[in-house]
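Researcher: Let's continue the batch. This sequence belongs to CD302 antigen-like, and it's 239 residues. Same format as the previous ones, please.
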Amino acid sequence: MESAGRSGLRLFLEVALLAFCCRCCLSGECPADGRVWETFGNSCYHFVHGKEDVAKTYTIEKAREMCHGYGLLCINSEEENKFIVKYSSRVWKDTEDIWLDMYFDPDNDTLVWQDQTPVVYTNWEDVDDLTPMDTCASADSSSGKWVRVSCEDSYKRVVCETKQVSENAAKRGNSQLLSVLVILSVVVILGFSTAVWFLSQKHSFAPTLFTSFEYHPPFRSPKSDETTLVEAEETEAVA
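Model: Same format as before. Here are the structure tokens for CD302 antigen-like:
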């Protein structure tokens, strides 16, 4: 009984550990498209460094094409800005500005991110005298300072950015399916352990039951045996 209980407990722990490892594998993944992606916070970053194209700097339209459907760089905190500066020095030997995924919104008369979210964190160096309708933005890869530039500028580096794929609905569906499988496994393990325990209890109870009810033949009086013997002898004598 004890060995069966231990086996059930060990099996339960193994299933729980497998579920935990699988959930870790499903979370925090960057696109598997053959390119190198770096992670920071909940985002993935790809630094375009010339091996994918002859040119090393691009117009903002070409930069978006290079990202293959993913967005350009959006910086939302000082920590993220420092990360970009630090990692840029590892990828690029020289210093260039990086396109920011920002454009001028004439309705609100301000710069906003391409995904329509407001610009909360900024690190502007100076205000340039550019026509607002022709204003884009870039970040210096060495200092991290932002500058307003012309959208027609063609000498900018490219950093692609996207959210980690753990937020994808398909991943969430796989995670939910895994949870259901774990629950079913636990139910099966508990049912198996209960059945083993019941059978072990039944086998240990059976010998005790039969020992308590030993068979004893009915009591017979010695006098009745003698009377039967005498009657048998008299019958033989008459014959």
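Researcher: Any comment?
Model: The longest helix spans residues 169-212.
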